[in-house]
Amino acid sequence: MDQTIKKKLARNWFKTLQEVICQEIEELEAKKNIFKIKNWERGKNSNEGGGQFRILENGKIFEKVGVNFSEVYGKFSKEFRNRIPGGDKNPNFWAAGISVVMHMKNPHVPAMHFNTRYIYTSHGWFGGGMDVTPCLKDKSLEKWFHNELKKSCDKHNKNFYKKYKKWCDEYFYLPHRKEPRGIGGIFFDYKKENWEKDFDFVRESNT
Is 11 in contact with 96 (CB distance < 8 Å)? Predict the structure, then answer.
């Protein structure tokens, strides 16, 4: 598949997902047009893409929600290009993704975060993850959440859950507090083995 088509498919999925999530939140809140929307541009003097912030505050169910989409492109600096996979071969980059953070009014419902992205330098890859942070300890919630993640991962590869859970546990560990952030989740990056299968997994993990 042509790389241009891959970029468009990934970009359109992230943008559509932003629309779907915001619409579903509005249905739960039983109120339309409750998100404050702000478009932004990466380069003020050149065309380098941009994105859109969508923010909800003080809803009946949601205390604060951010549903943010971006599509940016440009050229890595000489100091930075060697730190990014493929950047040493091609300093040009393109990236699109979605990032969501939700904080609920009910303290029994945990805060949730997830993001997914597709990046292209001299090659492309998917990355992302999700995790939740409860205010109150709830072992039954923790068990349910991780069972759901495992079921989603197992549809694609029986090794994904264990591997990506470990990555998340390490990524979100707080050394100064000697504890993890919340009850964990999954985290993955540099997925480039099979674009179609990787894209299927990304869509599964987002829904």
Answer: yes
| Count of the separate structural domains present in the chain | 1
CA distance 145 to 164: 14
> Residue 193: helix, strand or coil by DSSP?
coil
User: Can you say how many angstroms the Cα of residue 55 is from the centroid of all Cα atoms in its chain?
Assistant: 16
pLDDT in tens, 1-40: 899 999 999 999 999 999 999 999 999 999 999 999 999 9
Supply the range of the domain harboring residue 8.
3-206
pLDDT digits (tens, 9 = 90+) for 165-176: 999 999 888 899
Q: Which residues of 175-199 are buried (b: 16+ CB within 10 A; e: fewer)?
A: eeeeebbbbbbbbbbebeeebeebb
The catalytic site residues sit at 113
Question: Which DSSP letter does residue 13 get?
Answer: H
Q: What is the CATH number of the domain that holds 130?
A: 3.40.1500.10
User: What is the per-residue DSSP string for 81-126?
Assistant: GGGSTTTTT--EEEEEEEEEEEEESSTTS-EEEEEEEEEESSSEEE
